Amino acid sequence: SGESDNRNQQKMEMKVWDPDNPLTDRQIDQFLVVARAVGTFARALDCSSSIRQPSLHMSAAAASRDITLFHAMDTLQRNGYDLARAMATLVPQGGPVLCRDEMEEWSASEAMLFEEALEKYGKDFNDIRQDFLPWKSLASIVQFYYMWKTTDRYIQQVW
User: Fold this and answer.
1) DSSP states of 69-84 as a string?
2) What is the DSSP string of 21-41?
3) How far apart, in whole angstroms, are the C-alpha atoms of residue 137 and residue 117?
4) CATH code where residue 50 lies
5) Where do the ELM2 domain residues begin and end (predicted)?
């Protein structure tokens, strides 16, 4: 306190959550339920999501993944933990906000190519990218791999 801070503020980490916020755990949990419901609704309205995830059950599962929860928590923090403002941010004038992760961004044929490449090269993601998925970034392939490991397809291949 009272000392000048000469650090480059643009290079500093950004605060994304305040554990001392005024909300109760129950209020936060209720907001996360609403955020997942909005995510499911956004997928129902989005044509490309409907093609990739034709059932409500699959859309709801996608809306429950980390990307939706991270977006919800960020929305709360950016709106000063004001629930009404945060809810309005989830569903702005143009319709609900749709957040997608790597699992949703990949087509079924890309996922099959990935599985084929993984069988051939193991976890050599550079070779997978070079020979099978050159239009994907290395970061996208690695993120997809770690999400894919949580799916039934991974479990079926391992056992």
Assistant:
1) HHHHHHHHHHTTT-HH
2) -S--HHHHHHHHHHHHHHHHH
3) 15
4) 4.10.1240.50
5) 1-94
Its domain, for residue 88, covers 23-100
pLDDT of the residue at 85: 94
**Mean pLDDT on 23-30:** 95
The pTM score is 0.56
Tell me, what CATH number does 121's domain have? 1.10.10.60
Cα–Cα nearest to 83, from 19, 37, 21: 21
Q: Are 55 and 79 in contact (CB under 8 A)?
A: no
Q: What is the pLDDT of residues 105-122, one digit of tens each?
A: 777 788 889 889 998 999
Per the structure, the count of domains in the chain is: 2
pLDDT tens-digit map of 54-79: 444 454 455 556 778 888 898 999 99
- Assess whether 121 and 82 both reside in one domain: no
Last residue of a domain, one of 79, 100, 121: 100
Residues in Cβ contact with 138 at an 8 Å cutoff, skipping those fewer than 6 apart: 125, 126, 129
